[in-house]
Amino acid sequence: xxxxxxxxxxxxxxxxxxxxxxxxxxxxxxxxxxxxxxxxxxxxxxxxxxxxxxxxxxxxxxxxxxxxxxxxxxxxxxxxxxxxxxxxxxxxxxxxxxxxxxxxxxxxxxxxxxxxxxxxxxxx
Length: 124
What we know:
Blueprint: E1 7-11, H1 15-27, E2 31-35, H2 38-44, E3 51-55, H3 63-72, E4 81-85, H4 90-97, E5 101-104, H5 109-122
Parallel strand pairs: 1-2, 1-3, 3-4, 4-5
Helix pairs in contact: 3-4
């Protein structure tokens, strides 16, 4: 069994959202990294996170463009990506960019934990 601590990268320009997600995921035992713009995601993935929570609307590159880029590169294509947004058509946007799942804002703590846990179990 894989017993190492799993790392999650949060990319969102809303500090309150980052703080809330970080608190939930810290409590669940994950190591959490965060960036506040799309451009920084490509640098942050060098830390090899196990999963990425990616907001759509951020300064620099938007989350959809970043997701497409991550899924095209051999070194990052297998990292699960959850697109996070308040957009009404988040499900289709997430599917179009190759994301593994989506999370609508505002979100329930249990839904975030469940989605993260399910995706990490698939990539053990």
